[in-house]
Amino acid sequence: MEPLHALGYLLAALIGVSLGLIGGGGSILTVPVLVYLFGLKGGDATAFSLFIVGSTAAVSAVDYARRGEIEFKKVLLFAVPSLLAVYLMRRVVIPALPSTLLQLGGFTLSKDQAILFLFSGMMLAASIAMIRSKTESSEGEPAHPFRLGAQGFATGLITGSVGAGGGFLIVPALALVAKMPMKRAVAGSLLVIAINSLIGFSGDVQSGRVIPWSLVLTVTAIAVAGSFLGSYLGRFVSGSKLKKGFGYFVLAMGVFVLVGEILKTLD
Q1: For the chain, what is the domain count?
Q2: Half-sphere exposure of residue 132, counting CA atoms within 13 Å on the CB side?
Q3: 172: domain range?
Q4: Fewer Cβ atoms within 10 A, N terminus or C terminus of the chain?
Q5: Residue 103: what are its φ and ψ, rounded to 5°?
Q6: What is the pTM of this model?
């Protein structure tokens, strides 16, 4: 086994821990792992991450639901428009984009590079929103159902375009818009991630993408094992510390991906 692959499998466990503990971060780790350690292209990595993250999130969501920590009404108001947007992006929009989006002199921007640039930008924006939020959950009544659904649709468009489960956007949305306590936002995020990711992955399968099942299933199995540890650890961490830590984690990974893509573009 190559050293980079061994490190990739080790980090797969951290993917699961991240999802089980903070309800997000799975794709933030999965996409860089698949790109930089397993050598996959950005488009393939974002597609395969949907299955890995979606399956892992589904297992964690069942555990949270069993403990009564998922507010199903609010979550479904957010999830249904979100999954429609994800499927639209993965089945129709992304396959229709040309492989080269921009060519200006000696500079070329490929579809894969654009996806990763967008991915890092969304992480940076979401991290700042979480870090600046001062309380475990915002005071007041939750947003109107229409606004919550619109937020879900917008989130689905973004996560569908970057091939991410979207926890780095869903957790802030549920905490700040739906006014959920942080731990319930984590639980709800896992359910939305599972639905969005697996529906989005089905769009990739239908578009004819070839799936390296041996790699994908191995990473998924390791991540699922890690999710049980993350879910257990989440019982001992306060919501306010969880929110702040989540924000800084997303910020660090966003900078990592952005710098990596800039360096590749300059080569």
Answers
A1: 1
A2: 7
A3: 3-266
A4: C
A5: -135, 115
A6: 0.72
